[in-house]
Predict the 3D structure of the following.
Amino acid sequence: MCGIVAYLGQKNAQPILIEGLKRLEYRGYDSSGIALLGDAEVTITKSVGRISALEEKVGVDVSAATLGIGHTRWATHGAANTINAHPHVDYTGKITLVHNGIIENYATLKKWLESKSVEFASETDTEVVANLIGYFYSHGNSRNGTKVPASGNKFEWAVQEALNELVGSYGLAIICSDYPDTLIGAKKGSPLILGVGEKEFIIASDASAIVEHMTQAIYLSDNEMVIANRDGFKTKTIDNIAVSKSLKEIEFSLDAIELAGYEHYMQKEIAEQPEALATCMKGRIDLKSNRVVLGGLQNHLRKLASTKRIILTACGTAWHAGLVGEFLFEQLARIPAEVEYASEFRYRNPVINDGTIVIAISQSGETADTLAAIEQAKERGALVIGAVNVVGSTIARTTDAGVYLRAGPEIGVASTKAFTAQVAVLTMLAIELGRRRHLSNEYAGELLREMVQLPDKVGLILKQSDHIKEIAKANIDRDNWLFLGRGLNYPVALEGALKLKEISYIHAEGMPAAEMKHGPIALITDGMPAVFIATRCSQYEKIIGNIEQVRSRGGKTIVVATEGDENIKQYADYLITVPDTDEKLQPILNVIPLQILAYHAAVLRGHDVDKPRNLAKSVTVE
Ligand code: G6P
């Protein structure tokens, strides 16, 4: 995890780095640092905690340096303190770098360096990279005896030799005090983008740190490095083979990543869902033919429609969206489907038969476990489809084909609009596959007509925010909550519980409502909140039974029900209503009040909604 940003150009680097780090803070926020290179001297400032603490420490005395690197950290190796915080400097003091990823063979390399009397200051794997480059640079020969070419650039050569020794993942930005005009970046397994401006460059973990300054970028692939100087840049593989990369337009504007009057990104992103859903469906639903058009899958739809099995793989919230997808592929397309935690899938020697299709779901497109599952599936011959939000992300590029979520940048760590867009994409795909199999034209038409109304219906739910806040307030001192739903509302219950725990640190469990009686019912005590998703559906009567089981044991019921359902009122201590829609589409509506509930609970408890403790938006480590 972690975010990196580096600047080389004509302007003062310091404010650009600090601003960039603030944009990347969602990737990790336990410590941070910047290094500025001016007049052959590197100045490093590090701080524990948020970027604001670093900003305070560097002060307003803007350094004149026009080259610098910065880092925001989510600790993996070593505690969150200033010694372990990046940038790291090598033992010679010449090489300074920032790193996102994990060096798996760092212990071996460290031992080798220590045998050469190289001393280490931190507990990090990253310092090994700095020292390895420094060792090769100062000795002019590498571990395998290769010597720096007489006409070559020694800095570039030393970096390249060191990269060839590394096992693991890295996004790196590196400077050398002997080369005040050079910035080197390298990528393997962690994202890295080079923003390209007029005689200026920004290397960053994602485009949000770039877009304020330049609108064009190149996306590095694994095992590639970029060497930028003030006149231009070149890209090559770490095996020293030149590669030419095309410039791409960064697809979002600064507005999309600013708070725009909201107090928190999560609040903004919840509110953006009508628009995000509309954009996700735009041009993809054809109400004349009752078909769905997913451009990125056009060449694979026949194979998809005739597949014998679909495996959906993802982590966290995206995994919950996968559970909805599983249900829909089976119900609408009658294709056997199963959902796998990406982290489990890769290690259990999965059976992938001829004709298995794997769908990887991810907001960031960078989640390490999901990426590893994709690689595993590809190795075994599966066609891998991506449902990804971030354009040009590693998963988007690694999958054979895909559908973008088009939810726009999601910055709050707790995923909201990406979830509803993930479910919308999976629903559209299930309907289209259904149409190619058994689903009637009439029913597909009904579903699609309902789908296009979802943005407006979400808008109506958003208006209940104050009412939901009151419910959160009334239960805010409760430390244990249950979230219960059946059928398609079971994943919604899981997602509601996850939202509450990740930002308000309240313990919450989501489960199929009927399973409660097999154990969790023992937890119910007087006043314990139980959130039921009980909208009109085929299991409505059954879930009423489950609500009664909770009430008779003193639990407080918060019920999400269909508008106009008078019957449900007698079972609800607190009632939240959502507009009616087809049962298959209910997850998209029913999750909205749960997102709002979690948001208010976290604010009421005084937590940092957008940057909850111990979490990061994009988990690029295993
Ligand atoms: C992290 C985030 C979650 C997210 C999960 C998967 O744990 O905090 O919100 O659902 O990663 O991320 P992805 O980017 O693959 O959807």
